[in-house]
Fold:
Amino acid sequence: HVQLVESGGGSVQAGGSLRLSCAASGYTYSRYCVGWFRQVPGKEREGLATIDSRGITAYADSVKGRFTISKDNAKNTLYLQMSSLKPEDTAMYYCAARTRGMCGLSYEFDYWGQGTQVTVS
Structure:
């Protein structure tokens, strides 16, 4: 009964910053792989960043240097710190979890949140 709930989305001007959060229940971030994805209407889902049980991160080229994925194991919460936002970052952002050991953007994820909208103008 894994549940993931995103928050922190909203509207921001280009060049601004936002921090997204993903709270998990029935799942412990410290043990497995978690990540952030985004999707716009009519386009394929895009993987943005992952972090594994040891804290090793991976980023898509489109966001590296601007976005930072992190987690607070005590709070069982995942974060995506976004800076230098661009209009092309506008999308629905999702967090996801993978309960198996391997981690990275090329792997399938098992559980998904409902998303939080980010609009950059």
Summary: The radius of gyration is 13 Å. The chain is about 0% helix and 50% strand. The chain has a mean pLDDT of 94. The longest strand covers residues 18-25.
